[in-house]
Amino acid sequence: MPATRLKVPYVALASQYAAIKAEVMAAVEEVIDSGQFILGPQVDELEAKFAAMCGAKYALGVADGTDALILPMRGLGIGAGDEVIVPPNSYLASASAVALAGATPVFVDVRDDYNLDPDKIAAAITPRTKAIVAVHLTGRPADMKAIQQVADAYKLLVFEDAAQAVGATYEGRGVGSFGIAAGFSLHPLKNLAAAGDGGMITTNDEQLYQYLRKARTHGHRNRDECEFWSFNSRLDTLQAAILLVKMRYIDAWTQRRRQIASMYQDALKDFVWVPTDKAHEKAVYHTFIIQTERRDALKQWLAERDIDTKVHYPIPIHLQDSAAYLGYKKGDFPVTERHTETMMSLPVFPELADEQIAYVCESIRAFFQQ
Questions:
Q1: Which of 5, 163, 189, 346 could be stapled to 185 by a disulfide with Cβ–Cβ 3.0 to 4.6 Å?
Q2: Mind listing the domains of the chain with CATH numbers?
Q3: pLDDT of residue 120
Q4: Cross-sheet strand order for the sheet of 173-174
Q5: Is the pLDDT of residue 2 over 70?
Q6: What percentage of the chain carries pLDDT values higher than 70?
Q7: CA–CA distance from 292 to each of 128, 264, 269, 315 (Å)?
């Protein structure tokens, strides 16, 4: 057993702000003093820097990560009568965005890396299929080359759900630069986190970008003319100002997450299944998920030692009450369902101390050696 007992939370949001509080407060005061609370210059600046980080031509700030998926789908005409392929193991917004755009989510199982299995997509395609949502779950890029090959063969659009993957790369390219559009979440739990809700859309399509500029503000062509019905979904200037401060640190925070992941991998690989990067990937470890057949007992063991863990996610989307109308049942997606019984997320936020990481690893080893 570890000699020293520590407390290890799953997240500690305030600790990140403690290190940059002076910069954040100065940025907030600048916005307050300017009075430009809606679509102020900080939003434009953040969008430019975010697009450059992803390697995309355009970025557009919106209210949250769900709207960052819905609005591009609506802009490309996806709606009633259409089907969109999504994985069933993601956060529910990956599928609810499809439904809220008016289309029908069609689920396809995943690989052991938690991302969509390209080899299973073709069997789910029908004449009504219009798009594929490639989710970069846990901060690991989906297999975009293989997914795009399927999409090209069937003339489908590809959307990226990059909510958990700010800064991840695939074959040297940033996620958010592959599909027709990508949606990012800037929720407080994400790697690049606002002090509240926020989202970002990236795209290389100028026509879609011009639509989105109107779509996030009720469909206004200008102050007095409305071109089409749409949402009110704008990233607040205050949030953009805070995020601009955090953009200065995102590379260092990502490096630290990857360092923590490496420490877990080295210490735990002989005891549990651990994720590892492939040669063409740079994962950003929004979550660090281990797997073991003894998950529930291990989770309880760690809780008794003040180590907080989570399960992402215990109920897959196709078995949620909200998805019952789609007609799926238990057993339809065996890889996803197996994961729900074996996976557990360890703390991986950048402010974790080496001592805390060592305590987590020692506690897990002690469980299996008892």
A1: 163
A2: 16-108+115-247 (3.40.640.10), 249-369 (3.90.1150.10)
A3: 98
A4: 173-174, 169-170, 281-282
A5: no
A6: 99
A7: 39, 14, 11, 17
